[in-house]
Design goal:
alpha/beta, 3 domains, elongated, disordered C terminus, binds zinc ion
Length: about 600
Amino acid sequence: MARVTISSPGKARVPSQAPGQPPRNIHASAAGSPADPDQRWRPRGRGPVCGYTFRDKTCEKSGPHYCEPRADKPVAFFAELLVHTKGPFARQRFVLSAWEEHDVIRPVFGEVVWSSEWQRYIRRYRIVYIVVARKNGKSELVAGIVLYLLVSDDEEAAEVYGAAKDTKQAGKVAEPAHRMVQLSPRLKARLKRFVASRRIVDEKTASYFEVLTSDAEGELGHNPHGFYLDEVISQPDGKLWTAMRTAAGARVQPLYLCMTTETDDGTSFGGEMIDEADRMIEDPKRAPHVFAFVRKAPRNRDELKRLHRLFPGHPDLPFSLDWADERNWRWPNPALDDFLSRSALRDEALEAANEPAKLNAFLQFRLNQRVQQTTRYIPLDLWDDNAGPRWLNPTWRDKQLHGKRCWGGLDLSSRLDLTAWCLLFDDGTCRWRYWCPESVAPKLNDATGGQFGQWVKAGWVTLTDGDAIDYERVYQDIEADHEQFSIINATYDKWSGEPVRQEIETRTGLEMFESDTTYTRMTVPMKELMRLLHENELCTGGNPVSRWMADCVQAKTPVDDPERIRPVKPKRDTDKRIDGIPALLFAIDGRLGSYGDNYDLMESVR
Ligand SMILES: [Zn+2]
């Protein structure tokens, strides 16, 4: 129940409203927006009637649900106990703005699931990613969350920790938290600050908030109820995050927050975390306990389309890719015109227009774009839209496909790893075969969280004996496909496949074309793949191995030519594999070649 929250009269902050902007509360009810609780995906489950009551409002729902009274409590906590500590609203009540309330606080604190372990409803989300541009007030927002977790989350002896690159950086949240305590008579009476130990202590419940030092991963004995990691992109690796994550054993509903702006290094810990946040938005089933709020300006047409698909009707969506168009600024800057001054952005945009080096900084820090040229390529929701009827195994539709025209793509990534063969039919059906030496299976099993073993069992991947790929098996399977379907030609990667090409040609008489994964060869098939996905013209049969690989694909674009693109092969010591996607791209290349006219048109983008 409401322990700390008190009602007190006070002047509510009236958010400023730019002329011509839509009313801000549309935001919360935009159809299809994740901000709308009715549209939110939830895990299945059961549970008794909730019955949670806050200020005469009682929740009658059961099972996983959005619990309005629970969400009301932190919203009231902010407005009634906290004040802003800086900027135009300093010392005024902290009335959450629409995006803070409806896109972050309400879902994070209101979404609950029944826990049979604790015999009560607990917060569904344990991990929260917040990825927005700088100066949108995220430090103050998180400072408020920290104080809520400390004194108002019904947790005895709560331990709340904060960390960043160093203690000074972590203080960006700790300082406003301390200031909020000073400016709130109720909190000031209850909480004590200990500067030397970097703590704010609530003696009543033996709870404290502490800023960790940068070498904190070596410390033992944490049992966090709450933890924030600020500017994740400054972390050298994931050690601190993992140490804190694995420390939370004994808490009922711990909350981990990760805040950051975009990075210029997609392969860093921070870059991967941002990618993971993006995946959560496309595929919430992936990890029902993870919440992501991500606001990045799109870098290309596909990313712009993705946003409009995932957030239909959202009033803040960007209109175009033009970074200088102010209408595109609100998406990465939800606090624009409110907490964040538009004229400051205008000044920087002007400078950026005249100076390329400043443009990069503007794109990264103000529009929250990944300025480095490697990005995730295929949004998972788009890939899933092209699954069609699910196959139970890779030969599921062989009878219907018998004798039909198709094009082959072969990716022999390494003698010691996965090899992929993709057949693309006229109607967009994709049929993959994967082979892998059995010695690699345990590693791939780990990389996929145990799924790889199931894929092998179901026949999606053929394991061959020994340490290296058994080419004889590959030849036999391709020969069998050649007898069964009308394969027009096959395209393969010239860097790894020459002897294999000769053998396949000898055995089947198939016409083989060489290709590679350079900009020159990949730009056209990659654009065609994106077009096929958008037009819903592929049918992957839900192949789980290919889905995993589609998710792993990163693409690269040269700095001086945004029209060119190629896939980036992950290093073999990572947990990622993409072989099935180059195989599909090779098949697409072969099919475009046969489609003639179409190909000439596409050629012009090279
Ligand atoms: Zn409820």
